[in-house]
Design a protein that fits this description.
The complex is a heterodimer of chains A (290) and B (260). By secondary structure, chain A is of the alpha/beta class. Helix content of chain A is 31%, strand content 21%. In chain A, 54% of the residues are buried. The chains are: A alpha/beta (290), B alpha/beta (260).
Chain lengths: 290, 260
């Protein structure tokens, strides 16, 4: 059964330094609050795993929490580059970042293998791509037809962290809308933390197909309203597109980035304080005197 | 943006590119759509000549009919207006890899004379000059979709003799072809200056059409290699007032919604 915990305690107890952490969410339901809490607690030497590292991983990489990134597409969706990620790869600032990169199909298959308890996944992929020379992918022949296919190793993170709309009082998790690869990440991980918008008596979408993850597959559930900001939680919040655009400006400049993190993450006690700080003032360059 | 005047209809070179790309989609086709220009062109097709086109985005939204263009690949708009939403492993395995996609619609940072696409790095991989976002879904879209339409703005920086990194293979470094692939690869490249297609024998990209007001020499000077030119080169039909009206309404609706 999942334990109900504060986000602070869940991150403190379940995410040790040096852990391999997968924080999944495909544009929708990105666990920003959990990432901010890792920055507050000064976690280090993490291997961060995610198909689409976006602004939250940019913030964690920019603060030097990560030793390595395992991914398939790293950008600011709809806006452009992740400047802290680029600074780490292009200039080793604030620390060098080891990369292990795949295609989306490869990453998705790796998660499925992890959730299935298999050592690797088979797929028709990577043919002719230079990725083959730079990542863990092998060629394998189908034992029945002889067709040459790609094999990629399973992903089994130490901890998966996701954000969901709801948990019921038993800790069963309800998610709807774009569900990405969250279920595979949780089932493939050794432990999972789920932050939710709301804890409810009965999940809004009732019926036999609507528990995304039963309580006993999750280690900790923390109630963190708007825990996906600036991404969105369908039914609870809309995407803060303006923030993603402003992030381009904030993250281009090392000092402005550091001041933003100091003001809005390290300088706030928890996610509720972050939200009131964000809503109290525009977070553009002017607001921070940049 | 230079305004081009033709048939009393004024339009931009980006609009010409989007309209040209949208015309390539056939009604009823199943199309795997990338974000940005491809998404704009695919939705223009759906709202004009191809109402039954099935649009699939890699966030798992299948048969989606967005009222406004998505800013990201996983906008709520795509999920709310989809026939079904599936997980990301499912969209790549059951729908793309299994061969259910007729057309992939993609962009890239670089393309070379054999249609190879780069979205990984500019410079060398270990010490890149520019670190780009990476592969995303592109390598398998190019290998598994029936064919691929590529859209990108025509600059010497984008049209390079040989890409720095083959993220998604077109016809190979030497133009060797498509052995080992299910799909036909990039069958057409649409830019803001014209249209290129691979030569059926050598697979080298060849200029087959220029947009109205664009000279062949303009295209050549924006291409980083000695571009092959078909004989004759045709001129693209300019956008019709209907096409422009639908496109501009869509763009205006989108702008309004995203500024809220």
């Amino acid at each position: 059964m999942a334990e109900f915990a504060s986000l602070h305690d869940a991150i403190r107890d379940l995410v040790p330094d040096g852990a391999t952490v997968a924080m999944e969410g495909f544009t929708h339901l990105i666990p920003f609050a959990a990432g901010h809490e890792m920055i507050r607690q000064g976690k280090k030497d993490l291997t961060l795993v995610r198909m689409t590292p976006d602004v939250i991983y940019d913030q964690m990489i920019g603060m030097g929490l990560a030793r390595k990134l395992v991914f398939s597409w790293g950008g600011n969706p709809g806006v452009g580059s992740l400047h802290r990620f680029r600074d780490a790869v292009e200039h080793g600032y604030p620390a060098p970042l080891e990369l292990e990169e795949h295609s989306h199909a490869g990453m998705a298959a790796r998660y499925v293998a992890g959730a299935s308890g298999l050592p690797f996944a088979v797929l028709r992929a990577y043919v002719g791509s230079d990725l083959v020379k730079h990542t863990e992918v092998a060629s394998i022949n189908c034992p029945f037809t002889g067709e040459e296919l790609a094999a990629v190793p399973a992903l089994n993170p130490d901890v998966a962290v996701i954000h969901a709309q709801q948990a019921d009082r038993q800790g069963n998790v309800g998610i709807w809308g774009i569900t990405g690869v969250q279920r595979e990440a949780v089932l493939g991980a050794r432990k999972a933390i789920v932050t939710v918008e709301e804890i409810v008596d009965e999940l809004s979408h009732r019926g036999p197909n609507n528990v995304m993850l039963p309580s006993w597959t999750v280690a900790a559930v923390a109630c963190v309203p708007h825990g996906s900001h600036p991404s969105y939680s369908m039914g609870y919040s809309t995407r803060d597109n303006a923030f993603y655009t402003e992030w381009d400006l904030i993250s281009r400049d090392r000092d402005l980035f550091a001041r933003w993190i100091e003001t809005f993450v390290i300088g706030t006690e928890d996610h509720a304080a972050y939200l009131s700080a964000i809503s109290a003032q525009p977070q553009g360059k002017e607001a921070l005197g940049g | 943006m230079v305004d081009l005047l033709s048939h009393d209809v004024t339009y931009t070179s980006d609009e010409m590119m989007t309209v040209t790309a949208s015309r390539k989609l056939v009604d009823g086709q199943v199309c795997f759509v990338g974000i940005g220009l491809p998404s704009q062109a695919a939705n223009l097709a759906r709202l004009s000549h191809a109402p039954n086109v099935v649009l699939i985005y890699e966030s798992g939204t299948i048969g989606t009919k967005p009222e406004i263009l998505p800013l990201s690949i996983g906008d709520g708009e795509l999920a709310e207006r989809a026939d079904l939403v599936v997980s990301v492993p499912e969209v790549f395995a059951y729908w793309l890899q299994a061969g259910r996609i007729d057309v992939g619609f993609l962009s890239a940072a670089q393309i070379d004379r054999f249609g190879n696409l780069n979205s990984t790095v500019v410079g060398c991989y270990e010490d890149p000059k520019v670190r780009l976002p990476g592969a995303g879904g592109a390598p398998e879209i190019v290998s598994s979709a029936g064919e691929v339409i590529v859209m990108l703005r025509h600059t010497e920086r984008a049209f390079v003799p040989s890409v720095d990194f083959v993220t998604s293979v077109g016809f190979g470094r030497q133009g060797e072809g498509r052995a080992g692939h299910v799909g036909a690869g990039p069958t057409v490249v649409i830019t803001d200056l014209g249209v290129l297609e691979p030569d059926p024998t050598t697979h080298e990209l060849t200029l087959v059409a220029t947009h109205p007001g664009v000279e062949v020499s303009d295209v050549m000077s924006h291409t980083g290699w000695d571009l092959l030119v078909a004989d004759p080169v045709v001129t693209t039909e300019p956008p019709t007032p209907e096409e422009l009206g639908i496109l501009r309404d869509l763009v205006a609706r989108t702008k309004e919604a995203h500024s809220r």
